TrEMBL record:
This is DsbA family oxidoreductase. It comes from Blastococcus deserti. Residues 2-204 form the DSBA-like thioredoxin domain. InterPro entries: DSBA-like_thioredoxin_dom, Thioredoxin-like_sf. CDD domains: DsbA_FrnE. It holds the Pfam family DSBA.
Length: 230
């Protein structure tokens, strides 16, 4: 069974959703037969590459609210993240274009390291306050999970994975995704947003049941309706 997750590496709900999915998978009896595939989705592709800006005032302006109101909203999200074992510092965050990070994740996928890199980038951005927007910022994370530095620099310089990122975005749009995280199981069931682990578990169970229907055997001698006939 395949679980595809569209997300961005600077989306606070995506990291929370990742933890909730992991909790659901821990409770799923067929966990060893589930493949999780991380798909690319940019929250704000309009940000010029190479530019960064403080997140707090930018979000306040985007949603037409005050900086203090946005700070309070961020604090609520930080508490929800803490409930999942994550330590956010949203008000101190820096935003930028995540295209290179998504391209790097596609390179990691070719080496079987996409899950490891996804976790590393999320942790670096939300819990360490580090940049995930430039080649020089991304290279150390890639090397940490086992990728070759020269290959990483070459791939991000020649943009060889840009078409793959664009394809992920187009697929998300075709499936009806308007935000992230966006979970899709076997291309049959979907869930938008950082849904509770219990709901994600229900989706996994339903998808599994659909893919593995019970086989009904011919009736044999036995007990029915609370009684046995001899």
């Amino acid at each position: 069974m395949q679980v595809e997750v569209w997300s961005d590496v600077v989306c606070p709900w995506c990291y929370i959703g990742k933890r909730r999915l992991e909790r659901a998978l821990d409770l799923f009896p067929h966990r060893d037969q589930v493949e999780v595939v991380w798909r690319s989705f940019q929250l704000d592709p309009s940000v010029p590459e190479g530019e960064t800006h403080p997140t707090l005032p930018a979000l306040a302006a985007k949603y037409g609210t005050s900086v203090e109101a946005m700070r309070a909203n961020m604090a609520r999200v930080e508490q929800l993240a803490a409930d999942e074992g994550l330590e956010y510092h949203l008000a101190d965050g820096i935003s930028g274009n995540t295209l290179l990070a998504h391209e790097l994740l596609h390179l990691a996928a070719e080496h079987g390291l996409r899950n490891e890199l996804k976790e590393r980038l999320l942790h670096a951005y939300f819990e360490e306050g580090r940049s995930v927007f430039e080649i020089d910022s991304l290279v150390p994370f890639a090397v940490e999970v086992g990728l070759d530095e020269a290959e990483v620099r070459a791939a991000l310089t020649d943009r060889r994975y840009l078409p793959a990122v664009r394809e992920d975005g187009a697929t998300a749009q075709a499936l009806g995704a308007t935000g992230v995280p966006f979970f899709v199981v076997d291309r049959k069931y979907g869930a938008a947003g950082a849904q509770p682990a219990e709901l994600l578990l229900q989706i996994l169970e339903r998808a599994w049941a659909d893919a593995h229907p019970l086989v009904r055997l011919p009736a044999a001698d036995g007990c029915t309706d609370g009684s046995c006939a001899v």
